[in-house]
Design goal:
This protein is of the alpha+beta class. It is built from nine helices and seven strands, in the order H-E-H-E-H-E-H-E-H-H-E-H-E-E-H-H.
Length: 273
């Protein structure tokens, strides 16, 4: 029942009470930002660190996202080398041996050619500064009126998926800039297409909606999700079939009718009855 209500997006009923589980406060969080030569290098880096260290975060973003954040002037580039993609990883280091292990893995990744450059936080202020490179992306690209898609695929499919989406957008609209970032640890990708100056918002969004079909065809090809963490709602309602089979949608509609026969709970979301 819990998961039904979470996935139901308010269409099955109201949550009137919830219990919150408290976690212990992390100890001595450290952050590494690493530049990688291409997206194919991201997964070996993730696996190398995951095998030896318990990660609390593993994020990625592209050079365009980095540049948009830097252009605002609030943070500096973490190292001189410009790279196609960057990963930010966070881990607890309450003991010195964990820091030593992280540096050993970092050096191993450099030797393998998976990492071109990188930096490890040396203070709490630097932890916060490095995190801003990732957390400030949405605010930094907002003036460019991005067309956003929140999608996900299996982690092993992410490199091929990103390449295909890049090719699709460039083949259809070569003047569109793509800003990638996301939570690579769970295959959650934020695809942001930035509006060119010569297009109105309506023209731009119309062109992006044409691309949507190709994007979601690719999501379906890789057995992914059209909405990784922001729900389906009304915007992605027409595309639900790309992530769910007719049988699954049939079950969803049957549950909706059972829980809400009068159709008063968040009507119009997910699908039409």
């Amino acid at each position: 029942l819990q998961h039904l209500f979470i996935g139901g997006e308010g269409t099955l009923g109201l949550v009137t009470e919830a219990e919150i589980k408290l976690e212990r406060q992390p100890q001595n969080l450290q952050v590494l930002v690493l530049g990688v030569p291409d997206f194919d290098a991201v997964m070996p880096v993730l696996h190398a660190f995951q095998k030896e260290i318990d990660l609390t975060a593993f994020e990625f973003f592209g050079e365009l996202a980095m540049q948009k954040v830097l252009d605002r002037g609030h943070v500096q580039r973490p190292f001189e080398t410009q790279c196609p993609f960057y990963v930010l990883l966070e881990f607890e280091a309450p003991y010195e041996p964990i820091m030593d292990k992280a540096m050993q893995i970092f050096e191993h990744c450099m030797e393998q050619g998976w990492v071109l450059d990188g930096v490890m936080s040396q203070s709490l202020d630097q932890v916060e500064s490095l995190w801003r490179l990732r957390e400030d992306i949405s605010e930094s690209i907002a003036p460019f009126i991005p067309y956003k898609n929140d999608i996900s695929v299996l982690i092993t499919h992410v490199p091929a998926f990103i390449k295909e989406i890049d090719d699709i957008v460039q083949d259809n609209y070569p003047d569109f800039e793509i800003c990638w970032f996301g939570h690579i640890g769970d295959g959650n990708l934020h695809l942001n297409i930035l509006k060119p100056e010569n297009l109105s918002k309506d023209e731009f969004f119309a062109k992006c909606q044409v691309v949507n079909k190709y994007v979601f065809d690719t999501v379906k090809k890789y057995d992914g999700s059209i909405s990784a963490e922001h729900g389906v709602g009304m915007t992605k309602k027409p595309y639900l079939e790309y992530s769910r089979s007719p049988e699954e949608i049939g079950y969803m509609k049957a549950l909706k009718l059972a829980f809400d026969p009068n159709g008063i709970m968040n009507p119009g979301k997910l699908f039409d009855l």
